Every structure is written in structure tokens, then in C-alpha cells.
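Data availability (excerpt). All sequences and predicted C-alpha cell strings are deposited with the supplementary files. A representative entry, Cytochrome C oxidase subunit IV family protein, is shown inline so that the format can be inspected without opening the archive.
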Amino acid sequence: MSISQGLIVCWATLVVLSVGTVLAGGSGLWLAVLLLAVVKAWLIADGFMELRHAPRFWRRLVLGWPVVLVLVVGLV
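C-alpha cell line:
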């Protein structure tokens, strides 16, 4: 798969996840909304920001941040 095809797949997946977020939010499934937000953040970081090729420290830092935010929001 070429880079442009990979980005198109990534974009299409983000569209599906965004629709899922709206549907879950409308149903009151707040945990599903938070989980979908984390998946979207990971997809953006790995797919569009190309963190797959970044040093491990930066990749873990960026991929861990959405998890920290979900934990904080979930506790509040």
C-alpha cells in the first residue's frame, strides 16, 4: 500500500470513528465516546503525524497523553 493510500484509509477510518462518536454521544454512552476519542488520537498520531518512525520516548509520550486525559475526565 502506498503512502497516499494509507492516508486515505486512515482518513476513512477517522470518518467512521467520528460518526461512531456522534452516535455514542447521542445515546449517552460516555465511556464509548472517550474510548473512541483515544483511538482517534492514536490514529492521528501514528497515521498523519508519522510517529511510527519517531523515537520511542516521543511516541509513548504522545500516545499516552490521550489515555491520561481520558483517565482524568473519567475520574471527574
